[in-house]
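I am writing to request your help with a piece of structural work I have in hand. The matter concerns a single protein, recorded as an amino acid sequence and a row of backbone structure tokens. Could you please explain, in whatever detail you think fit, how the structure tokens follow from the sequence? Thank you for your consideration; the sequence and its tokens are set out here:
>
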Amino acid sequence: MHTFFATCPRGLEALLLAELVSVGAGEARAVAGGVLFAGDWATCYRANLESRLATRILWQLDRAPYAREEDIYRLALRQAWEAHFDVCCTFRVQTTAIRSPLKSIDFVTLRVKDAICDRFRDQVGARPNVDTREPDVRVQVFLSERECTLYLDTSGAPLWQRGLRHANVAAPLKENLAAGILKLAGWQPGTPLFDPMCGSGTFVLEAACMALDRAPGLERVRFGFERLRQFDSETWQAIRNAALARVKEAAFQQIWASDVDARAVRATQRNLQLAGLGEVVKVSEQDFLACTAPAPGGILVANPPYGERIGEQNELAALYPRISATLKQHFAGWTAYFFTADMRFPKLLRLTPRRKILLFNGPLECRLYAIEIVAGSHRKPKAEA
């Protein structure tokens, strides 16, 4: 058994824990930013292939206390790197730290790189090359206040890169965050889903794959674990083939998307078509303010625009009440989930959220607001004098 750490967007740790347990993870424990778990290599392969929420699956090699950079160098030097990957592989070291007393994280990265090269020279007489852009092997160093942990990345490119989104518009959501929002909304395949501000279609792409039971990693060209000496190709192929065998035939799944921007509509349509999901989602060009509900009830999910400049904020302050009016007039019986970094949103929308969920879009603090839509206003009438 090995120890792994699955990273994820902050706020999704509990959901990720349940997801990893479902693919065989043992001793799973949610911590800030991810989930620690135990498993064999088959569990690692399934986690990479099946997780909709993880960003990376890291294999923990070792951990030890440190006081200075040379302690970290010695920790890295004693690792059997030559037993993990071939000298012909390129590699990259990345360091992250929380409350580390060391002055230079870049210097820590350099010393770990030196240790890996020195170990290879001692053991095989040659050193691997560094590639900071597209390395074969990624080494992750994590520093807490007193302890250093070394990991090998088994994912390679981040897992939110599904290989499905070929056309983008401005500021798209990462796929694992979109999947997490759908899960937080309680959406299940078969329940009507509508994204009226679809952008490049991230929400509906994720929902379509969930509806067809299509594992998120099936379209990826390569995972990081395929470069490691421990890679078992037969086990991996059996796991991948089992995932392929359960994918359902593409058919309409009561998922709708629209946008007022014709470019966004074209991007969503292109992404769905290239992914073989064109029949699963109905896409249209329309202004949300002119939308009517596509079904008597369901889940509406949206990532509305939010402005950083004063002029943009004033425009949004005028837009939000109009969104509220559309919801009350045409979406009674629906539950709306809005993901935004604009903390004014519920007040300006003039609707009271049933839930407010703290999430992070990268470093940006956001909220997911859940609003039950009923006909008319949510506000209580004022008592007569």
Remarks:
- The chain has two domains: 2-153, 175-214+244-372.
- The chain has ten helices and 14 strands.
- Confidence is low (pLDDT under 50) at residues 377-385.
